[in-house]
UniProtKB/TrEMBL annotation:
Keywords: Signal. InterPro entries: Porin_dom_sf. This is Porin. The keyword Signal applies. Residues 1-36 form the signal peptide. Gene3D superfamilies: Porin.
Amino acid sequence: MPAFKTLPGADSPRARTVARLLATALLCMFAVTAQAQEEVEDDTPFSEPEDDWRVWKLFTGQPIIFYGQINPAVVQYDDGAVTRTYSPVGNSNKTSRLGFRWHIRQFGDWSPLVRVEVGLSARPSKTVNIEDPGSNSWSSREGDLRKLELVVYNDRFGAFSFGQGSMATDGITEVDYSGTRLAAFSNVGQIAASQLLRNRDGQLSQLQIGDFIDNFEGANVTGAYPDGSRKMRFRYDTPNFNGFVFSTAFGNEVLRDEGETNVDAALTYEGVFGEYKFAAGAGYSWQSETRVLSGSATVLHDPSGLSLTAALGGERDGGSFAYLKAGVQRSFWSVGSTFLSVDFYRGTNIESDGTLATSYGLAMVQAFDKPGLEAYALIRSYDIKQPGATFDNGLVTMIGASWQF
């Protein structure tokens, strides 16, 4: 998986597209706000809006609620012969980001919301390797505009979303109650995706771990969209019917070269059965010749804190994967809950016919009473097989901390 390119110049077609999107969003925000009354709902993270530094009020009287995540980490990778440490890096399992939500007062039964979210690129762990350790500086990369959308919700008719944002199958293979999502999830190659495989004779190959591992998150296959299935799209989500929500979207990739039109649909469910909490999702995505069917499910036993998560999926006439995770949640210390998990991944025919990738991981996340603060650690092995080649096993370790606000 090559490192991302820098954003094009201001006169490039993609730059002009992004500029038009931003201008359109701003016009929509001001047009909607101008009609709204100054009275707004209390939809802030804290009970008293005036005590929350994340809430700003504009001249219109409408609040803008800022949110974000800072997620630095230290990653060490052993390719079987050489061990390198990369510090600091951004944890690509859940990237740093900054955004805001602009809630507009209801118009009858309709609730509009404007959301803008950008990624904060600082040496993502998925882009570094022994030949290209990356730069410690913050920079702009393609795809850093994560969301730029207008969402309108109605209790009876559901939600309608317009603009840059998640397709229906975004995250469909990542339903997970383990609590260790920061350190380990179904796309086990994310934190080391660009690390080069070392041949058994000691020579470095130009093949990367990310070439052989994928979690088939919608049209997100083989690194083509390495940070989720988000596009310039129209999306519809039904109201919640006894835990079930059906979603569909139609969109086009506008932030990267060679973007294609994508259509997808997903069905998700979440419910409680006595002492058990259960969630699942399944989706189907089609893009040109690509057809992907994938999904995941997770269950948590509240009294014991034990959880089990599974995910699987594949591309028509292409590769497939299976993932299994067992987790436990405990309160060992007074500072907050502790989450532990072990997982297994198996991917077949992803890079090419006959290839096989297996990975085992052990993860820990420690939550703290301070809202949004978590520390985490991971150790993960990679075993890659390809016809006609023999590679040393890889081993990655990661420690880090995340602050969500």
